[in-house]
Amino acid sequence: MKLIIAIVQDEDASRLVSNLMNDGIGVTKLATTGGFLRAGNTTLLIGIDEAKLDTALKIIEKICKSRKQIATSPSPISGTSGVYVPYPVEVMVGGATVFVMDVEQFVKF
Ligand code: 2BA
Residue whose CA is closest, atom 33 of ligand 1? Predict the structure, then answer.
């Protein structure tokens, strides 16, 4: 068995969950926050038999789109004076950041 941890954009999350569930793939959805943008995103935990791993990855790839986002991270502009101003940065986010791990044991009580 494998565990997929997929970090996706909020805009894609509910369609992705529906598509996975329609294929009989169980999902847990967590509200998370990206460290760089400090904006909300969604993390899905997907426990899955190895035989269905490729199916799940293909669904994630199909649904999750890359989008440009503007980050207004505070940046120092005046050296050591400690003055910060919002500095807009354009970043490309997603489609999905995916980790696949081996599951040592899986039990339900
Ligand atoms: P964030 O950390 O908010 O990052 C959003 C996007 O900002 C990233 O998109 C990337 O394009 C850009 N970015 C991140 N760190 C950067 C940096 N130091 N300099 C310049 N640009 C930077 P994605 O790569 O598609 O990542 C989307 C979200 O996936 C991330 O949101 C984070 O929540 C998660 N993520 C990405 N890589 C990860 C990792 N190695 N471990 C854990 N979570 C990760």
Answer: 34
